[in-house]
Design the sequence.
């Protein structure tokens, strides 16, 4: 199993180099309903360097240090993120696969939204998968 | 061709949902996932990868919300399960 993990834990060049190269001024963040420790384990298993992400909003902690009082999905959590990032919500793009959990709360606080792996009338745009995300940016 | 575009300078932050967006493969590859879960299960139980083992996995994982949940229950590390899934994502990309 360890050998398999070593093989599989390489960066997916089709998508994940994009995190580093295409839009260097955009700060990437993670939002998840799982604990902070598990987020890091998952990112490592996917071959994503933890440093690629500015903040990680987990079920229990923000960045492993600040107690997160809100649960996903909730508008309060999205408001907390806007406050935490100290920016206008329209400058935040939320990307998710669930209209109820990801798109609706983000849209409610004014974030731009992208639905992947499905269609959403609420989202600004729906895409076939995460690999289509770079195409929405006029570079 | 997408009819929706954003100026990259209009967006300062991206919030990526991890749960089902970055961490799993598209639903149309469920059969591939199942195949990989079978391999993980067979390896864990020291069984051959065949229909009998597949049926055994199906029976044992009844009542669990997912095969992954069952595999975690029998001691397969979550990260190992995710690792198997991530390789399938790359196969998917090659297909499209």
Sequence:
């Amino acid at each position: 199993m360890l050998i398999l993990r070593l093989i599989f834990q390489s960066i997916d060049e089709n998508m994940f180099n994009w995190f580093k190269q295409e839009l260097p001024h955009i700060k990437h963040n993670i939002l998840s309903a799982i604990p902070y420790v598990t987020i890091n384990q998952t990112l490592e298993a996917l071959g994503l360097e933890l440093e690629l992400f500015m903040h990680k909003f987990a079920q229990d902690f923000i960045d492993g240090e600040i107690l997160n009082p809100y649960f996903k999905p909730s508008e309060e959590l999205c408001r907390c993120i806007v406050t935490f990032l100290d920016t206008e919500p329209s400058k935040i793009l939320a990307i998710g696969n669930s209209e109820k959990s990801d798109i609706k709360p983000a849209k409610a606080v004014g974030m731009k939204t992208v639905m992947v792996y499905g269609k959403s009338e609420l989202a600004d745009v729906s895409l076939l998968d995460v690999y289509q995300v770079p195409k929405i940016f006029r570079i | 061709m997408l009819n929706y575009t954003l100026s990259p300078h209009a967006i300062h932050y991206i919030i990526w949902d991890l749960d089902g967006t970055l961490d799993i493969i598209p639903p149309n590859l469920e059969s591939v996932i199942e195949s990989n879960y079978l391999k993980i299960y067979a390896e864990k139980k020291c069984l051959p990868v065949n229909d009998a083992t597949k049926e055994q996995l199906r029976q044992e994982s009844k009542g669990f919300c997912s095969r992954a949940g069952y595999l975690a229950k029998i001691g397969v590390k979550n990260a190992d399960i995710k690792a198997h899934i991530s390789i399938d994502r790359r196969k998917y990309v090659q297909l499209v």
About this structure: Residues 78-95 of chain B form the longest helix (18 residues). The mean pLDDT of chain B is 74.
